[in-house]
Model the fold of this input.
Amino acid sequence: MLIAVCAPQSTPLAETEDGRITAIMKLRHERMKNELGKSLNLIDDEVHGAAPDKAKIAEAAQILLTYSKEIPVWFPKGSGPETGWGLAKSEIWDKPDEFKAATARMIDTAGKLARAANTEQLPEITARFEAVAVECKGCHKAFRIPPT
Ligand code: HEC
Done:
């Protein structure tokens, strides 16, 4: 009885773990590309456009902030180069404090941008936007294998 209950669990458990990693990796690509990438581009276009729309900027900044907070969840152990795909460097797991600091800076700058979008004038908003872009690039430089 006990064996019948336990045995079938061992193999599917390993497969489930693989499936979980794959799902998270797909999710992080989607989020980086859509929620982070598109929001950053939208703000870039707005602040450098003829008639910047502060409401749109504030909305996109909020998305940046919300999803930046999820970054740690997107990089579970076992989702690095050992999977044979993706561009995440092993440094993410070898230097966890540095990765954590890079994520914290991203959250911090995104928060400041979101606040500025609601309360400040364009030059301040633009400066906050640029500070966010620096964090995207900085983390990619340290922790992402350069895309070819
Ligand atoms: C704390 C680190 C970190 C921060 C901050 C970060 N990224 Fe990333 N990003 C990564 C890593 C690592 C990858 C590679 C993931 C992979 O290939 O599995 C990546 C991948 C991407 C990709 C490629 C996704 C794909 O489809 O392959 C885009 C686009 C991207 N990031 C945009 C952004 C933008 C825009 C920001 C800033 C708003 C940002 N990222 C902030 C670490 C970060």
